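Slide 14.
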Amino acid sequence: MSFTITIRQGPARLASRFPELTKCSLRTAAPARTFHQSATRPSKFFTSKTALVSTILRTTPRNVFVRSSRTYMQQSAAPAADTGSTTRRLLTGGAIFGGTLIAINAVFNRETREDGGMPPFERSYLNSTFLHTGLGIGIIGITARQMVQTGFVYRLMVTNPWVVAIGGLALSFGTMLGTRAIDPDNYVPKYALWTAFNATQAAFIAPLIAFAPGALIARAGLYTVAMMGSISFVGATAKQEKYMYIGGPLLAGAAIVAVSGLAPLIIPATAIRTLAFTENIWLYGGLAVFGGFTLYDVQKILYHARMAEHGIIKKDPVNESISLELDFLNIFIRMVQILMMQQNRRK
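Slide 15: predicted structure.
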């Protein structure tokens, strides 16, 4: 018979093997603990900033920092491109002005003056008139800008449009007629009414300035100055009273342009082609009419200078500047509208 005797280890033997058992338990617990942690998804809501930054740094490739540095260098080179585009625009504007001046001079000024050029008194009177015109345009621009910044133009727009239109026209005609009626020797009331007239014109163009971009306003002003400058040069260097006869036809053209501007109030909205035709008459026909008025007004100023030199009338550059201001505003408004239409078509 065989006997199997099992002898259990005593407490002393277990105590001697306790360090080995502890090491084995640590080796097997770590993988189990890692497996347990990977099985449970950590909360994405409560994530420490340190863990988030370390995760981003581990997952972000090194090329990103290189690209970001290249992007930074490209952005720093952007002002050079803007400077080049600004220079190109200035050159384009100068070329347009020069080309317009040469073309208009070649077409409308084939016969120059036969009296040896412009006399000093005509040149002085014309310069004084253009100086008052520039001051008036400056007053209109500054006043319109202040109306936009103070919110006055928005208060005008929320009121009854008919009251604003009729009241504005009444103030405009009243101040204009009052300025023209005052004797040029009476400086204070004449310049006061002239300033009030410029303020009424500013109220008319302030809504246009409020909604049009500044760059577009600047372009329209540049084109207007180029157009009026070239036409004024032609009128100043042409023969005496050569274009004085066009006053009547220009008044008829101005009446047609005014009627075409009122067409949307009468013609229904379904007549799209008719409205488009009247709009073209208002825009491009108005440019032609008020360009002609500029030519006529310059010749009229020189005619008045000769009359004042002979003592028939008094010199009054304020009254002469009102006509040129109205020409400038009508051309400027149409330039802004044309440029806004082109910008909308590009979008």
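Speaker note: Confidence is low (pLDDT under 50) at residues 1-7, 21-40, 42-50, 59-81.
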